[in-house]
């Protein structure tokens, strides 16, 4: 099985098409007004409709209320809810139960001790997405284009359903996959020219480089 690739933070039909054309397995839409990749429910619905049947759709949320999740789920019919806030294991499980979608929980990694947080989510969520710990005072809890030390995952049970994220690029994804033994990778900033503007050539290069890295 080849490496599964998710391209996140798509906000325009043209770059969404570029991700689909490059063969992305999943595309991600961000609902977080502080993000340069934020899309309204209407825009998210338009983009999700373009992707349907061609790639799975992930909806990225940060401590969203049931009302907002409900509105976005109705509008986009996502396959995955990617939680990037302070959602507890109980909240992750609750969202999965209420909305009947796969739930991925982002866990920030800066040191080995941070792996303990992931242990709390293996049952509550379908997958744990490892991202870099955001810098102090950062506006965004993710999408900062920062990588963490992939060696931190080297001792993780490879059967654990995790997603490798944070600061990946077409240039480093091959090494990241090999070191972390990742089966799924996720990128946003690394395929942009400036924050929020995706680059079709870098998207294609990322998918090629990720596929070339596996399976192992
Ligand atoms: O992309 C954002 O703006 C964002 C906002 C809030 C939470 C998470 C966000 N991005 C996600 O973070 C990871 C890593 O991104 P990057 O490749 O380091 O830029 C990825 O899932 C983004 O979609």
From TrEMBL:
Family that this chain belongs to: Belongs to the TrpF family.
Molecular function terms, GO-annotated: phosphoribosylanthranilate isomerase activity
Pathway given in the UniProt record: Amino-acid biosynthesis; L-tryptophan biosynthesis; L-tryptophan from chorismate: step 3/5
Keyword Protein biosynthesis: no
Enzyme class per UniProt: isomerase
Leader peptide range in chain numbering: none
InterPro entries according to UniProt: Aldolase_TIM, PRAI_dom, RibuloseP-bd_barrel, TrpF_fam
Keywords: Amino-acid biosynthesis, Aromatic amino acid biosynthesis, Isomerase, Tryptophan biosynthesis
All residue ranges annotated as the N-(5'phosphoribosyl) anthranilate isomerase (PRAI) domain in the record: 5-208
Protein name, entry field: N-(5'-phosphoribosyl)anthranilate isomerase
Species per Swiss-Prot/TrEMBL record: Hansschlegelia quercus
Family matches, as SUPFAM superfamilies: Ribulose-phoshate binding barrel
Phylogenetic classification of the source organism: Bacteria, Pseudomonadati, Pseudomonadota, Alphaproteobacteria, Hyphomicrobiales
NCBIfam families according to UniProt: PRK01222.1-1
BP term (GO), one: L-tryptophan biosynthetic process
Catalysed reactions, semicolon-separated: N-(5-phospho-beta-D-ribosyl)anthranilate = 1-(2-carboxyphenylamino)-1-deoxy-D-ribulose 5-phosphate
Coiled coil ranges: none
